[in-house]
Amino acid sequence: MSWFTKAMSSTLGKKLLMALTGLFLVIFLVVHLSGNLQLLLNDEGRAFNVYAKFMTTNPLIKTTSFILYATFIIHIVWAIMLTVNNKKSRPVGYAKVSGSNSTWSSRNMGILGTIIFIFLVIHLKNFWYVMHWGPVEMVKYDGVEYKDLYATVDVAFSQLWYVVLYVVAMLGLMFHLFHGFASAFQTLGLNHVKYNPVIKFVGAAFAIIVPAMFAAIPVIIYFKNL
């Protein structure tokens, strides 16, 4: 077994990978949100459909998407491994051992991650799978054909159960980010008395604003379609 394999299989190595993949996914959230906000433009979906085609046909973006898929898988698998290891090392229960020194979100990262994972499976099936292999109608803008993915999203967000699921998942993401954002910097050694308050403030602001904006999109579309 190489030194790299040994390092990555250790608890510290797993936490390091969790931190790196987590920060990469934070960047993905910002990019994904910027695209989703175009759903709210009053242009019958044109901006969103053009954006979607660019994101699925640009060679650089397509290559990056494979890195993103690998990042999701690594983050999820390592999270499960760390959760199992934590339970084995704390047979009396995390809350009893850590007491008031830990936050609710830090004690329930496994539950929060599970909620997000379930949502991801449903979300990918409804959009990513349909986008690539589903029956999607075509629209034309300036003589160029585009998949009308806006219509697919519009139909999905007209269903109350899916809007509720989306909002609940974003609440789970919010609490997940509350702990994960600052924890990632700490794991990477970026931990200093002078900068910790800034990291915590930025992390808390990100954890609230980004999931809230994601959650607002299906809610707005749902009430628009009533």
TrEMBL record:
Keywords: Membrane, Transmembrane, Transmembrane helix
Residue ranges of the TM segments: 66-84, 110-131, 160-178, 198-223
KW Transmembrane (keyword) present: yes
Cellular compartments per GO CC: membrane
UniProt KW Amino-acid biosynthesis keyword: no
InterPro entries listed in its UniProt record: Cytochrome_b-558, SQR/QFR_C/D
Record-given protein name: Succinate dehydrogenase cytochrome b subunit
Species: Fulvivirga marina
